[in-house]
Design a protein that fits this description.
Elements (H helix, E strand, L loop, with lengths): L28 E3 H21 L5 H19 L5 H15 L7 H22 L5 E3 H28 L1
Antiparallel strand pairs: 1-2
Helix pairs in contact: 1-2, 1-3, 1-4, 2-3, 3-4, 4-5
């Protein structure tokens, strides 16, 4: 068998993400401000979940306002102490609220708190006016999936069967 007997197909594989005309595909990217908006949405979602289950007491109302302000500030300054303040505030509200120990709100918080942690780290490193390739975010997405998916499965099974 000689080298000339091999046939090389000049058209690239369409499943590899390369267009059929042979040009390389532009990598997908996401804007820094979009990452911060998603971080703000995650912090607000976690805040609203615990605020809805909190008892309506005067001092708690002030804490609710501070928690929402910290959630909004997290999107503006993800490299500050605000993401930690939001996570501690969410856990404190969850512990202080009365109600069932294991419910759908807890499942949502189990997913949102690590997401806030990962997103704050990513957003702290990426300026708001820049663009980031999705492939650069893949390690953070993998860490999140490895940390959250098994816990969510166990909590879901316990909630359904237990």
């Amino acid at each position: 068998m000689t080298l000339s007997s091999f046939h090389v197909d000049p058209t690239p594989d369409a499943g590899a993400g390369i267009p059929a005309d042979g040009r390389s595909a532009a990598p997908r990217s996401v804007r820094g401000w979009a990452l911060r908006v998603s971080l703000g949405a995650a912090t607000l979602a976690a805040s609203v979940i615990v605020i809805l289950s909190a008892p309506p007491i005067g001092a708690i109302a002030l804490m609710e306002v501070l928690l929402v302000m910290a959630a909004l500030g997290t999107a503006l300054a993800p490299g500050s102490v605000l993401p930690l303040a939001v996570m501690i505030g969410v856990v404190a509200f969850r512990v202080a609220s009365s109600g069932p120990v294991l419910d759908a709100a807890l499942i949502a918080l189990v997913a949102l708190l690590p997401l806030i942690h990962q997103m704050a780290g990513v957003c702290a490193a990426i300026p708001a006016r820049s663009t980031c390739y999705v492939s650069a975010l893949r390690p953070a997405m993998i860490r999140y999936a490895i940390a959250v998916v098994p816990v969510e499965l166990v909590v879901g099974i316990v909630l359904v069967f237990g």
